[in-house]
Specification:
Layout lengths: L3 E7 L5 E8 L3 E5 L5 E8 L1 E5 L2 E5 L4 E4 L5 E5 L5 E7 L2 H12 L12 E2 L2 H16 L3 H19 L13 H13 L7 H8 L3 H12 L3 H18 L4 H7 L5 H12 L3 H8 L1
Antiparallel strand pairs: 1-2, 2-9, 3-8, 4-7, 4-9, 5-6, 5-8, 7-10
């Protein structure tokens, strides 16, 4: 087996660094990160030294290393080390904690190196998948906040109490109206946050509570509704995709089939 690794940055998350790797022979020498190191083990295992102790992380576990903490890493067995990692900075993690509680919060701190929490592990894996396959910035922003928010709220030593949701009907209505009018744009949570004077994470939560869908999925439904109308008029799937905010025809087809149950081409033929 050969070592494989894909390393990239996400510009709209302040160049958040991410890694998806399968290591069999590579050994990480003792090192530190300026940022948090947060990874989820997909297969094999990670043998590492941290805070003077030896650890082995197995599939489904999350590893959290605080900034400036010395650690190592290598495959724990012949199955290798298959994992996904992200390296959020202190500012981003403080922002997540502040959005959770609704008031300024300090840097989250994690005492456990290895966390067994299937919910958080699944959310981390989901965020990685969305970043690599989903063009919607708002979908990526929501997935990141949910994953890191649950990690901080459930496992940080100084975890904040999650702010209770209030009756924000006017704010949600403003957000819905904006999405209806700007459905062709790659709308961000920050845009809706500025519009409603609510934090991005709080807005996403209260929107989901009242509408039944998070903002990015509501935006997708608006686009699909518009796409159906254009398809019935005889427009091609490619033209419809570009006219309704999708990046290309395959992007439209993927979401159209998930929601409608058939492809745009099939839908167009039924409408002719």
């Amino acid at each position: 087996m050969r070592d494989q690794a894909t390393y990239w940055r996400v510009p709209h998350f302040d160049n958040l660094e991410m890694l998806h790797a399968a290591y069999y022979e590579h050994v990480f020498q003792p090192h530190i990160h300026e940022e948090f190191s947060i990874s989820v083990i997909d297969g094999g295992g990670n043998a590492f030294r941290h805070r003077g102790s030896e650890h082995i992380a197995t599939p489904g576990t999350v590893i959290v290393i605080n900034p400036q903490e010395l650690h190592t890493g290598s495959a724990a067995n012949e199955l290798g080390l298959h994992y996904r990692a992200m390296y959020p900075g202190v500012i981003l993690m403080r922002q997540i904690a502040t959005e959770l509680t609704g008031s300024p919060w300090g840097m989250p701190f994690f005492k456990q190196s290895i966390i067994y929490d299937p919910l958080v592990a699944g959310l981390m894996q989901r965020f990685h998948n969305i970043v690599r396959t989903e063009a919607s910035i708002m979908a990526q922003q929501t997935a990141l906040r949910v994953a890191l928010g649950q990690l901080v709220a459930r496992h940080a030593v100084n975890r904040p109490q999650v702010q209770a949701l209030g009756d924000e009907r006017l704010a949600v209505a403003k957000a819905r109206d904006y999405l209806e009018e700007h459905y062709t744009e790659n709308v961000t949570l920050e845009t809706l946050s500025e519009l409603t004077a609510l934090s991005p994470f709080y807005l996403a939560r209260v929107f989901h509570q009242q509408v039944g869908l998070p903002p990015h999925k509501y935006l997708t439904h608006i686009r699909i509704t518009r796409a159906k109308a254009l398809l019935t008029l005889g427009n091609s799937a490619l033209d419809v995709a570009l006219a309704t905010g999708f990046t290309d025809q395959s992007h439209l087809t993927r979401h159209f089939k998930r929601i409608v149950g058939i492809t745009p081409g099939h839908y167009a033929r039924l409408s002719s």
